[in-house]
């Protein structure tokens, strides 16, 4: 006996799902698991709906936070990539190194 297939979603429904993912702060696999979405289908539709984002994914939102001497040892630089992945560095890592690393991302 085979399991029932998930209902087919419209382009508009996939756009809502992709938009929710982008606002969620979760990784793509984690989002799919929590929302009962097939990961392979999600990836296909995310690429189909956001082709420009994939090509220009080197633009990353960065925020800055005041770091005091008491919090410096625990402070992190965090970059949330459009793919859902998060990159984290200690604040002692060179900004030049981080810029080179981000620039080398596909």
What is the fold's blueprint, element by element?
Layout: H1 11-24, H2 28-34, H3 39-49, H4 51-55, E1 76-80, E2 86-90, H5 95-103
Antiparallel strand pairs: 1-2
What order do the helices and strands follow?
HHHHEEH
Please, how many helices? Answer: 5
First-to-last CA distance: 42 Å
Mean pLDDT: 76
Structural class: mainly alpha
Task: Walk me through the structure.
This protein is mainly α. The protein has two domains: 7-56; 58-106, no CATH class. Helices cover 43% and strands 9% of the residues. The chain has five helices and two strands; from the N terminus they run ααααββα. The chain has helices at 11-24, 28-34, 39-49, 51-55, 95-103, and strands spanning 76-80, 86-90. The chain has a two-stranded antiparallel sheet with strand order 1-2. The longest helix is centred in the N-terminal third of the chain and has 14 residues, at 11-24. The termini are far apart.
Quick overview of this protein structure:
By secondary structure, the chain is mainly alpha-helical. The chain is 43% helix and 9% strand.
Keywords:
single chain, 106 residues, mainly alpha, two-stranded antiparallel ribbon, 5 helices, 2 strands
């Amino acid at each position: 006996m085979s399991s029932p297939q998930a209902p087919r979603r419209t382009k508009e429904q996939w756009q809502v799902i992709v938009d929710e993912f982008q606002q969620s702060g979760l990784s793509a696999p984690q989002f799919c698991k929590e929302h009962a979405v097939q990961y392979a289908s999600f990836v296909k539709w995310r690429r189909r709906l956001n082709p420009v984002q994939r090509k220009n994914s080197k633009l990353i939102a960065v925020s800055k936070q005041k770091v005091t001497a008491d919090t410096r040892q625990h402070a992190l630089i965090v970059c949330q990539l459009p793919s859902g992945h998060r990159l984290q560095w200690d604040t002692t890592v060179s900004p030049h190194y981080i810029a080179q690393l981000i620039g080398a991302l596909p």
